[in-house]
Write a sequence for this structure.
């Protein structure tokens, strides 16, 4: 079994990172290639085309070890995400950022939850049970997610990092993540994935007490123990990852999934005295999580059931993907326009917020484990996450082409001014922030 595990690890790392490199060569986010590799190494493709090879490469006996590594990679990744969340990034753009974040969460949330109620008959064909509060809310969350890591990579690769729409989209996505994870935690409480001896009121009370203790006490204690003692950075990193794992184990026990505890541990982790991120902590966190994240994609791919996709499944995928794109792009664009951005910058913000990727996959896995998703619907939503991420780059190109072909604003025609200062003119969605005031 050790031989099987080591060879499977070699295959997962080589194929996962090789596919990520290929995706970048094709002008797509690295994570798209890794997700495709995870599906390809799963039972739907490798398992159906070469079942004997699949059995040899991934025997059932090593599934526990692979699952453990996948969850560890997830904890480290979300700990880094939580550490990077910074509410002060809103600055003088706070009102616009909040407007965009709330709109791009509420509209998809309402549409997703409404569809779960209206089309419950069709969902039964995808093995979904009768709708509950948890399943209805989760359907909304599944449409509302925006992947901050993927969004950040797309912004950087398109030279939008120092532009008004780039900064606004990343800031709104960070706030949207906080809202999304909070609602997702609530859906977990409605599931039966927690400790049977505790009903959901008991779990909710314990979770609230745990969150308060973490938010009020963890940061000063960690600063005193790990920062003021001038501890070696490598030892501090190890202890903080252990702290994240412990926090994740508590929320997993309470039925909130490990992701909630890992994210909370990152949020309460101390920063430098001037409020900046500690590079000696952040850099190795990114290295460890990016190295191990292919295990999570392979773990996710094990539950993708392409063989069971029938006409209803493919039709559902088409409808869900269209709704996912339209609700995100539409709500983000309208909210950004109301916040004072010009037409092209507002469109850019809406398109950027449509990217999902790894964050969506994390939420879907949590829903599957909590019994809020059936395997056929999980498969549909995984491909929706892949499709919306793939569509982000072509939609950005479309926005640029529309901007190039639209007439220049007539002299003297006033445009709304964003709260953070005068914004870029029409037809220039990549105006640097320095030039935009």
């Amino acid at each position: 079994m050790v031989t099987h595990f080591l060879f499977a690890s070699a295959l997962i790392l080589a194929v996962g990172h090789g596919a990520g490199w290929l995706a970048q060569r094709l002008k797509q986010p690295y994570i798209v290639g890794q997700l495709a590799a995870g599906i390809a190494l799963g039972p739907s493709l490798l398992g159906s085309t070469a079942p004997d090879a699949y059995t040899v490469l991934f025997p059932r006996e090593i599934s526990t070890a692979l699952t453990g590594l996948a969850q560890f990679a997830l904890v480290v990744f979300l700990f880094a995400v939580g550490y990077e969340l910074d509410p002060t990034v809103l600055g003088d753009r706070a009102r616009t950022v909040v407007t965009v974040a709330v709109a791009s969460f509420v509209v998809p949330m309402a549409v997703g939850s409404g569809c779960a109620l209206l089309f419950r008959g069709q969902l039964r064909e995808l093995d979904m049970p009768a709708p509950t509060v948890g399943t209805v809310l989760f359907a909304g969350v599944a449409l509302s997610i925006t992947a901050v890591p993927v969004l950040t990579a797309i912004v950087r690769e398109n030279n939008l990092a120092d532009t008004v729409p780039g900064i606004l989209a990343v800031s709104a996505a960070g706030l949207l993540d906080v809202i999304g994870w909070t609602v997702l935690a609530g859906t977990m409480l409605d599931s039966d994935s927690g400790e049977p001896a505790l009903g959901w009121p008991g779990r909710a009370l314990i979770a609230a007490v745990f969150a308060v203790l973490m938010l009020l006490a963890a940061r000063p204690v960690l600063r005193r123990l790990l920062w003021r003692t001038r501890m070696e950075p490598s030892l501090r990193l190890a202890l903080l990852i252990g702290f994240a794992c412990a926090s994740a184990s508590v929320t997993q026990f309470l039925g909130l999934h490990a992701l909630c505890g890992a994210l909370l541990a990152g949020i309460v982790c101390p920063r430098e005295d001037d409020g900046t991120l500690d590079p000696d902590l952040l850099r190795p966190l990114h290295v460890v999580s990016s190295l191990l994240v292919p295990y999570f994609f392979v773990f996710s791919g094990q539950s993708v059931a392409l063989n069971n996709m029938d006409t209803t499944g493919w039709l559902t995928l088409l409808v869900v993907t269209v709704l996912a794109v339209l609700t995100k792009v539409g709500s983000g664009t309208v909210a950004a326009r109301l916040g004072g951005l010009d037409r092209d910058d507002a469109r850019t913000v809406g398109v950027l917020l449509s990217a999902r990727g790894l964050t969506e996959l994390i939420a879907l896995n949590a829903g599957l484990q909590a019994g809020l998703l059936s395997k056929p619907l999980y498969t549909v939503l995984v491909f929706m996450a892949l499709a919306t991420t793939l569509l982000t780059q072509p939609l950005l190109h479309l926005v640029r082409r529309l901007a190039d072909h639209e007439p220049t604003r007539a002299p003297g025609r006033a445009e709304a001014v964003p709260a953070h200062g005068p914004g870029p003119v029409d037809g220039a969605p990549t105006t640097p922030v320095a030039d935009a005031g």
